[in-house]
Design a protein that fits this description.
Three copies of one chain form a homotrimer. The first copy, chain A, is α/β, with parallel strands linked by helices. The first copy, chain A, is built from twelve helices and eight strands. Chain A is 49% helix and 12% strand. In chain A, helix 2 packs across helix 9, helix 4 packs parallel to helix 5 and helix 6 crosses helix 8. Chains A, B, C: Its EC number is 2.7.1.50.
Chain lengths: 303, 303, 303
């Protein structure tokens, strides 16, 4: 889609994004299955700079999906490790004072080396330091953004991709699904990210009752999952980490879809076995390990 | 009770604290049940500034009890979020250098806006930095303090509420239950906190074999729980976090009682199912989710 | 063994290290069983300065093994607590800026008071800050080093105990077990550590498919464990923490052997019950609690 408000934005008529018809969805499913298989086979490293609340679950989820995890905070650590990491994950929860300089520095280093990364704009809009950090990423943007509807809207607003008017409107109306309110902001954000990458490939994933994934052009809706996901901390963060794991082996749209679909299927398996949020988390990690590439790729995808 | 040693301290003859007779205990039980119900119904946000060891369990316990969690460390984050948070939780384990300035600043902001918060004085008495931070809270005190006996005694001593002589005495005698040694310090601490709040309501909870909760006047003893609570890390911290969750919807005494009672009941359920500390923690989170308001409020309360 | 390259290194002909024959192995097994029993009986405190990813598992594993845990980062906290801690554990994952000064300061304080500690040189060789910190420990070395083969080789190289040539050689050949490549570096490292302690006792543990423990003279191989250990984060870190727990009650060689053997037996129990990495971790903590001193000490030990 065209994004008139952004000079950085463009469409690549030659890109290979699926167009949403039956054949493309078949092709997309094959690429999703391949990504899930490739992670299990090659155990790719995805490095994380993430919050202290859910850092353990992020690492365990990446391992359960078949990848390898490394967590770091110092720019010298991160930049050293990025050279052997297929993709990185940055989550801006639980900020410490030095992040204000460290995170922009890391994002610039990633951009300089065209290193792929996933941004989780946790709590976007809250706190002066977080806002400064998130604003700085506009000049060195990620390959994928994953968040809930309000975070995606806040980030798109912060980067001037939608007007404050557009941003505030959804809050004023009762939308059937809050994720709906983020469709346009998510598409504009994905188009902006896409225009910022060398090969014009990027994606935005919005987590909600029905997840939404877009490459800026097409929008995919992924139903399913479990309401217990909101009753454990880190469902979203660890999905972000696993998205980076898939990004290490696949193009952004495929990575975002594969990770969200794996999570929905695993959550359903876990819910069926759980007696509460404690056992749900245990079964979720087991299911991330046990759900097959075919189950992930065979999921319902509404396009 | 009167607290002659403290000029800040007073009794409010008009306060609505229960007097401990049968009718009041009935009323108290109703208010406890209501608090447990209100949390499940309104999913209140309680924000935490807590240690890195158990931060995940604190959040998961708050979610399992029915609340919502947000964890932050930067003053701008905390103060922004406090405006939408029903109560806050501060735990002084695993200090970092910048906490020395950040924590007093946060406490002052809470005081300025009469924001309710729970203090967990982990390891009170150990380390120069922790002592400085805990001392500073005397001028901007919390609504509830929750700790073990030695932490409550150390804090009351640090704030000059009991003499060093009174503080050291318990260590010299073999008390039947170490929590007994903290009764007077806990009452004096609660009276001091109460006198520092606009509506003269505060509480202190002492965790031990038999938990003790006081509003400065009445003392309630809560038997039960499980010895396995000491074999997982964060039983106390997460109880502190859940206390803040209840404080978001209830007065301090009711919040402290509800949280401690919920924990004792959940621990008993979990112990019966556990095969060791690993499964105990899983079952504990499930039980925090499954224990009913009636089970919490129907608990044995010795007053 | 003699270590010609190091002036700090020496052999103590009078030391009580086992010589590897049948009688000594019998004696060693008795000392291992005693260490496991002593921890369960005396619940010794081992303090940790460890990474944020696995800090919760480290504490829970120490508790499950029967010990007590305390986690700190500020030098004043650590040094205060070390006076009541039987041994400390330092893990250099997830560095923050202030660690560069704090960690060398802590190591110097430990050396000054002959305080026993275990070093986990996580990611040795990655990042300028980590390298500076690890280099600084040469002048104030730990009692035990526990790591994987590449970390042990990197540390031994960094401290000049092996030549860069020796260090790079293993990477060039396909060793049957990567732990084999670390035998000489581990022995030289243990001999160096041993020469740095007042009573000439130290150990190095190399985790891998078959674990390896050495006091610088003898090498013990510990088969068993589970491949699922690599599918959860913190198996190695928590083994390091439990090694410190045993070090609080036993000599270094016995502590390193007891911890590694306990982990292998517990991992086997957990694997038999697990349905994936989520339940594996739960069962692992239960098994650390349930495996008996006799089971640990009766393990296969190849010397």
């Amino acid at each position: 889609m065209s994004d008139d408000s952004q000079t950085h934005c463009c469409n690549d008529a030659d890109n290979t994004n699926p167009t949403g018809d039956l054949n493309d969805l078949t092709d997309l499913r094959e690429r999703i299955a391949q990504a899930v298989r490739d992670v299990k086979k090659t155990t790719p490293l995805a490095q994380s700079f993430t919050n202290f609340v859910t850092i353990n679950l992020v690492a365990n989820a990446q391992l359960a999906a078949g990848g390898t995890a490394a967590m770091s905070f110092l720019p010298d650590d991160i930049i050293d490790t990025a050279s052997i990491s297929g993709a990185d994950y940055i989550n801006v929860g639980t900020l410490l004072p030095f992040y204000k300089d460290a995170l922009p520095q890391i994002a610039r280093a990633f951009r300089k080396s065209d290193h792929k990364w996933v941004l989780d704009p946790v709590a976007a809009g809250i706190g002066k330091t977080r806002t400064e950090i998130l604003r700085s990423f506009r000049a060195a943007p990620p390959t994928i953004v994953r968040g809930n509807a309000s975070e995606i809207i806040a980030l798109a607003t912060m980067w001037g991709l939608i007007s404050a008017d557009e941003a505030s409107r959804p809050a004023g109306v009762e939308s059937v699904d809050e994720v709906d309110a983020a469709i346009e902001p998510a598409k504009k954000l994905a188009a902006f990210l896409s225009a910022s990458t060398p090969n014009n490939q990027a994606a935005v994933a919005v987590s909600g009752k029905v997840d939404l994934v877009t490459d800026g052009e097409h929008v995919y809706r992924l139903p399913g999952g479990s309401p217990l996901m909101e009753k454990i901390t880190g469902a979203g963060c660890s999905l972000g980490g696993v998205t980076a794991t898939y990004l290490a082996v696949a193009e952004p749209l495929v990575a975002a879809l594969a990770a969200s679909l794996l999570y929905n299927r695993a959550a359903e398996v876990a819910e069926a076995k759980a007696e509460g949020p404690g056992s749900f988390q245990v079964h979720l990690l087991d299911a991330l390990w046990n759900v097959t590439p075919e189950q992930v790729a065979g999921s319902e995808i509404l396009s």
